[in-house]
Amino acid sequence: MRKKKVTKIGVLTSGGDAPGMNAAVRAVVRTGIYHGLEVYGIMRGYQGLIEDDIFKMESRSVANIIQRGGTILKTARCPEFLHKAGRKKAYDNLKKRGINGLVIIGGDGSFRGAVQFSSEFDIPCIGLAGTIDKDIYGTDFTIGFDTAVNTAVDAIDKIRDTMDAHDRVFIIEVMGRDAGYIALHSGIATGAENILIPERKTDMKNVIKSLREKEKRRKLVNLIVVAEGDDFGGADEVQKLLSKQLPKAEIRVCILGHIQRGGAPTCMDRLIASRMGYHAVECLLEGRYNVFAGILNNKMHYIPLEQAVKNKGKISDEWMKIVKILAS
Question: Domains of the chain (ranges plus CATH)?
Fold first, then answer.
C-alpha cells in the first residue's frame, strides 16, 4: 500500500456489540482531533459505509459516553459488503469525503472485511478487538470481555445461593459460540465443578462419573458452566442426558444469554479501550497501516490484520488442569 499522509479518518463498530466500544470511539475521536485530523463516525458498521450514513464528529460528540454499554455508532450485519460491488460503494463514499484512514472496532469477521477492503482499495485500516469472546490472536485483552465475564460471575454467584438452599445441580450456559473464555473464566471464578467449552471435546462419561462420585460424598450442590458452542449442544442437551443418568438429582438450567453483552463497562474495559483507541490513531499518523493493535504483557502489540484473522487465541492445557484440580 502506498504510504500517504492521513488527514481524515473514519471510525466504525462492527459485529456483536461489546461494553467499552464507546470508550474506544471516544478515544479515537479525541486523539484524532488533538492531532488536527477530521474524524467521521460511520453508523451500523460496514452497512453505514455502503449507505453513506457517515457524519463528522467533534469532541462534544463523544461527551458522556465512556460509561455507556453498547455503541453509539450502532452495529449491523452487512451481507452486501461481502461482494466487491458493495465494497466499491463503501470506497466511493469515503473517497468523496476525502477519508483516507479507518479504525474498525470489532471481531475477526470485521477484520476479515477490513483485510479484503484494504487489499482492493487504497484505504489503510487499523483493527481494535471489540468482542466479549476474547478469541482474537495477538492480545491479552479484548474490549468487552472483562465486563461480560464479570456479569456472568455476578449472575452465577446469585444462582449459587439458590443451589445451596435446595441441594441442586445447576447447568449455566454462557455466551461463546466458538470460544470458551467466558465459560472458563467465570467457571473458575465461581468454583464450577465442570466447565464445558468448544475448544475441548466434551466427555460426558467423565462428567457423569464426577457427579456420581460427589453424590456418594453427599456433595449434592454442583455447578456446571457450559459455553453455548460446546460440542455436546449446550445446556439443554447436557440436562437431558444428566437427568437420565442421575434420576435422583435435581437438575436446573439457566441460560444467561444477552445479559452478558449489556451494562456499563468495567474500569478495565474502559482503560484498554481508551488505550487501544489512542494508539489506533497514532498508528495511522506513523504510517503503520493495516495492523491489529492489541495489548500483550501490558505493552501495545501490533501484528498484521491478516495475521489476526488467520490465527485464533488458544486455551492452554494448564487452564484445564487448574479446573480439574480446583473442582475436586
Answer: 8-144+265-310 (3.40.50.450), 146-261 (3.40.50.460)
